[in-house]
Amino acid sequence: MSDTILSIKEVKLAFGGVQALDGVTFDVPRGEIVGLIGPNGAGKTTLFDCISGYQRPDSGSITYFENSGTVELIGLPPHERVTHGIGRLFQQARMFPSVSIRDVLRTVQHRRMKVGLFRSVLGIAGASAEERDVTQRADEALELVGLSAHADKPAMELSTGMLRLCELAAIVAVRPRLLLLDEPSSGIAQKETEALLPLLKRLRDHLDATVLVIEHDMPLVMGLADRIVAMAQGKVLTEGPSAKVQSHPDVLASYLGTRAAK
Amino acid sequence: MTEFLATLPGGLVTGAVYALLAMGLVFIYKATRVPNFAYGALAALVAFFHYSLVNGRHVGIHLNLLFIHTGFDATVRLPFWGAMPVSLAFAAVMGYLIERFVMRPFARAPMVTNIIVTLALSALFSALAQQWFGGNDLIVPNEQAIFPRTSALSIGGVKMSWEQLGVIGLVLAFAAGLYLFFRFTETGLALRAVATDRDVASLQGVSVRRVSQVAWIAGSMAAGIAGIMLASLIVSSNPSLLVLLSIWGFAGAIVGGMTSFPISVGSGFTIGIVVEVARHYVSRADATKFVGLPETVALGAVIAILAFRPPWIFKGIREEQDSGVVSRASGVDLRIGRWIDPVEAYRLMRGAMGQVIPARAWSVIKRILLWLLVAVALTFPLFPLPEFWTFPLNLTLIFLLVGLSFVVVIGWLGQISVATGAFVAIGGAGAYIGANFLHLPFPLPIVTGILLSIPVSVLIGLPALRLRGLHLVITTLLYGLVVERALLPRFTAASVFHRPTFLSSDRVLYYVFLVCTALAFAFAWRLNKTRMGRAFRAIRDSETVASAYGIQPVRTKLTGFAVSGAIGALGGTMLIYQLGSFQAQYGTVGFSIGWMLNTVVGGITSIFGPVISAIVFGLLPAVSQGAVQAAHISFWPQVVAAVIIIVLMAINPEGLASFGRFLRTRVSAHDVEDEEDLEAIEAAAKELVNV
């Protein structure tokens, strides 16, 4: 069995004249936290969109190695990728604004539920048991992130930080094998960011998942990631263990440009 | 070939009117971002105003003060062209009034709010037109036509009348004027700037307000001219027919992305020609057999163009984020019911009053109310009520289902569809087929009615997979139009539907209906609490996030459309059992829009919404009108609903999206932190729209 969970090869995508991704190639080792860094416009979020299915690359391949076999992801719609165990959090904490967060956590378990429309409406043939199971799991996940007290509030009434927690609870309930996090620290206070580091690590251990994370907060990403992939202008600049990438001259030049110049 | 050419002038002239309507719509949309669904109704109102001046209108003003008794009575009668300036002034005043008192408070409202407000205006105008000018059809005799109907020229068998030539010339002149206006006037430049970017334009010192004023006034005058021309061309018309035909103007505008004048004009002409030429050949072959076919063909073409957006048409057209092709960040816009849903309203009030009534007491009260409702529903026919009560009662149960159908598709699934009237007609057709052709015993015709609705709702749902918001509303309007033109005429007075003898009493039928309605409500109530109901709300709030958690947008939407359609169709089967034959008034586009608005007032996200709207807008007016008039739908409830919607929406200038927050900031004493959090979320949502 391979040690790689995701293999990205020569992925290219252009928007009009802009080459957003220009032959991106790297592997994500199973069970590790891989940080994706780079200046604005480097193509990080576009790459995430390609992995989770919201964008279709012009060329290249994205291969996902399940326990049971390999899957070529390009061409699969986003909701199909979920069934293969790929989870995604967006840059802005997004949920279903008008739905109570307990219901949000029941909603995200959609794919775990097997009972069809009519059986679930009639509440027969295991439908009630499944419903109870889903509710229990939702409540457990909320408790894990400490949101139980807010379970009946609609998501739109939560602060961004709490929404982040709600998203993490959703991840706990869904249990993805590969988790894509797009700037988990964006929109939340510095103090909360500091709390995020141990929380994310705990989450990874809890789920035994592989994490690919985009992050601008350098201390956070260096503390979090086992490996770093640095991107600039649609290309991979360098990759390797965190400490090595951090001191790589190209990274300093492109990403922390001003400091390197000093 | 000659025959084909001979049909062209008719198509060309109809197309010219659609093109004019499309131009006016694009004009207003570019300047204000409002898709003006009241456009056709305004055209009808001005046309009726104009012809009542031409025919002679009685004007009476009476003053009765303490000592002064004076009166003024006169009959105003003007020649056609003498009345024209008056009618155009009327249109301009209407445009000004709409802009100043209705649309201005909604300047920054989300698209959904604008759609609902202009639909409400549309219901208001067509009801007013019927009220002022009587329910009679408007017939334009030869001497009152816009231009003489005598033959103007004849080239190789192709004949054109002065009327046709004049209308085409007038539309082309209007288009040329519009071109010059945009190119060479300062206001035209300002309008182009606003159309490109409102905020940047206003930062450069362009008065967005003035631009939108100009657009509404000019656009309304164009609507007036189009309405007068249309009334003259089709000779015999009524307000709802004019509203219906104006949907083609909308189709033309939407094919042009609501922004491109040349493409909108071109598609307006194309639709007119296609429909008229097809109508000619259809009527030559077999008019009754193929009734509605031309409209169906045109509908198919428009939907195909919208769904596939071929680059050879859309080259160079900026895709409008608001036009619905790109979804807005979330369905927050759709929290329509929150402020009119009594349960939600109570929840908000409870926060403010420091929980005067504890939650447990409230749940007891709710339960008591529910059982009271059930008890009244069960025993209603046993009350010593006059006989005329039974018909409105049975009708109310049908309206309950119509409302529920809207709640499922709009309130829960978040797809603005006005196809429910079509489903009512289709359910009626299915029951008719089941009983009269397949000779099925009761209750199987009800089942055939529901079954027939399922393929149709998939057909209607299919465009919804690619289209959103504005595009979807227009597509479902077009579907409604096709049902109205192709299906409803097939129900003639001769198509009698026989009730089984044991159902001959309306009171017995009431209990059958009650069971059907209760089952539908129980189904919807359970559905809302289970997996699929949650998936509906996820799709409504954010399709992107929903699919990131594995919810299949295609399957979920089609299921929602099917459930909504089946509920509407059930109402249709009940209707045909009640009426004994299908009456066309219940399947029309106007019926759909009217009941959608009523349901919005009742509360479109709540299962209790339809109960309120059916009682307020169905039962009460029908009963108050008594036995005789109960048979036809009064338009006063529509007027009331329209005014309520506009007023309620105008209370909060930011529109529906933030109404919950608006109420809470006014009503409850909450801490500042909450407010900041909400600001942050709002900011994030705005950010998402931009990304």
Question: Could you explain the architecture of this structure?
Answer:
The complex is a heterodimer of chains A (262) and B (691). Chain A has eleven helices and ten strands. By secondary structure, chain A is of the alpha/beta class. Chain A folds into two domains: 1-85 and 176-262, Rossmann fold; 99-174, no CATH class. In chain A, the strands form two sheets. In chain A, strands 6-7-8-3-9-10 form a six-stranded mixed sheet, with helices on both faces. A four-stranded antiparallel sheet of chain A has the order 2-1-4-5, with helices on one face. The model of chain A has no long low-confidence stretch (mean pLDDT 81). Chain B is mainly alpha-helical. In chain B, 70% of the residues lie in helices and 4% in strands. A two-stranded antiparallel sheet of chain B has the order 1-2. Chain B has a two-stranded antiparallel sheet with strand order 3-6. The termini of chain B are far apart. Residues 316-343, 627-633, 652-678 and 680-691 of chain B have low confidence and may be disordered.
SSE blueprint:
The complex is a heterodimer of chains A (262) and B (691).
Chain A lengths: L3 E12 L2 E12 L3 E5 L6 H9 L6 E7 L4 E3 L5 H6 L2 E4 L11 H7 L9 H6 L4 H19 L14 H15 L3 E5 L7 H18 L2 E5 L3 H7 L2 E6 L2 E7 H5 L2 H6 L2 H5 L1
Parallel strand pairs in A: 3-8, 3-9, 6-7, 7-8
Antiparallel strand pairs in A: 1-2, 1-4, 4-5, 9-10
Helix pairs in contact in A: 3-5, 5-6, 7-8
Chain B lengths: L1 H31 L6 H17 L1 E8 L4 E8 L3 H24 L7 H22 L5 E2 L11 E5 L2 E4 H23 L1 H11 L1 H6 L4 H26 L2 E2 L1 H17 L5 H26 L6 H16 L2 H4 L27 H11 L6 H21 L10 H23 L7 H18 L6 H23 L2 H19 L18 H24 L1 H11 L1 H6 L4 H27 L9 H14 L6 H21 L6 H16 L7 H9 L4 H19 L1
Antiparallel strand pairs in B: 1-2, 3-6, 4-5
Helix pairs in contact in B: 1-5, 1-6, 1-8, 1-9, 1-10, 2-3, 2-4, 2-8, 2-9, 3-8, 4-23, 4-25, 5-6, 6-8, 9-10, 9-18, 10-11, 11-18, 15-19, 15-22, 15-23, 15-24, 16-17, 16-18, 16-22, 17-22, 19-20, 19-22, 20-22, 23-24, 23-25, 24-25
